[in-house]
Write a structure and sequence with these properties.
The protein has 156 residues and is of the alpha+beta class. It contains six helices and six strands, in the order αααβββαββαβα. Helices cover 46% and strands 22% of the residues. A hairpin with a 4-residue loop joins strand 4 and strand 5. The termini are far apart.
Length: 156
């Protein structure tokens, strides 16, 4: 197997730093970084930082997801309102918060929806549907987001 499919397979399991990928795949750091740049240019991989000056973390990109940016307990209500705005236009959404507090929404009915659920299952906050009884509220989505953020804090 060539290197790019090995990198993609590794990132499918969990987001990682370039150093972690190099160790796992037994490849020089520089080679990994070059391949990651190519994968980012192709739109297959994204890069994020936990905080300024921190090591870059690479993850698989998923097309057609709505980014909510980095969130915190203080901004969860604002992010939940953004989710509700998306939900008003679409019937079903899935909300994710990754290990570095980057939040995104996958839109039900999108061809990539199932791929998003599978690829980011470890970061799933919840799935929300606007129709029927028990439709979500901003406060419920914000509470779910804060619960996921608390999980991330405990894991750190």
């Amino acid at each position: 197997m060539t290197l790019n499919p090995r990198i993609v397979a590794s990132l499918a399991a969990a987001p990682k730093s370039a150093d972690a990928l190099a160790r796992e795949l037994a490849v020089a750091d520089g080679v990994i970084v070059r391949q990651l740049r190519r994968l980012m240019a192709d739109g297959q991989v994204t890069r994020s930082y936990a905080k300024r000056g921190a090591e870059a973390i690479y993850a698989l990109a998923t097309k057609n997801m709505v980014s909510l940016g980095r969130i915190s307990a203080l901004t969860s209500s604002q992010a939940a309102r953004q989710v509700m705005a998306v939900l008003q236009r679409r019937e079903t959404v899935a909300v994710f918060i990754g290990p570095h507090r980057d939040a995104a929404v996958a839109i039900g009915g999108d061809p990539e929806f199932d791929t998003s659920l599978e690829r980011h299952r470890h970061s799933l906050v919840g799935m929300y549907c606007i129709s029927g009884r028990g439709a979500p509220t901003v406060s419920r989505i914000a509470d779910d987001m804060r619960a996921r953020l608390a999980e991330l804090r405990q894991a750190a």
